[in-house]
Amino acid sequence: MELKMIHGLRALNKGVALVVGAGLLLCAAFVLTDIIMRQIGTSLGGTEEIAGYAMALATSWGMSYTLLELGHVRIDLLRTRFQTFGKALFDVFSMIVMSGVIITIAIKAWPVVERSLTNGSRANTPLETPLIWVQLPWFAGWVWFALMSTLTTLAALSLLIKRRHAETEAFVGAFAEQETLQ
Questions:
Q1: Rounded distance, CA 140 to CA 137, Å?
Q2: Residue 71, SS3?
Q3: pLDDT of 86
């Protein structure tokens, strides 16, 4: 059941990653258009602001994909010295810590969004972008990451309790070791 859930989450996050990637490509096209227009003496304006928003959104939404593809950086100095059970313990511990940090980020991000919503805040830039347009999807990305991290942690914990230690490797193990195992 746990592995089936992880496969489903991976597929879902691949779709999210494709949408985020398409958004980054659109942003790059916008910036490139602005650069070309500057060469002929005009400009669209606001490319720096929009690119910054795109990066913030790509980061918050892309973290879940990176998590499920074992792309986050880990220091596994101790983990590599243990057998399957010890590695599974380190993996679950690292996921518990990550989930705690991400949940904290999501909780702390809400007051920022709430303040912008309450005050009708706008960016202090020539575009005067309503901040809620950017902060709400940014916040949703952190909540999504917190949810994905928590579900992944619970699946790994379930496998650990069921003594299926080797199976946790596929979705919470170390990527470098995954490559050497194949």
A1: 5
A2: coil
A3: 85
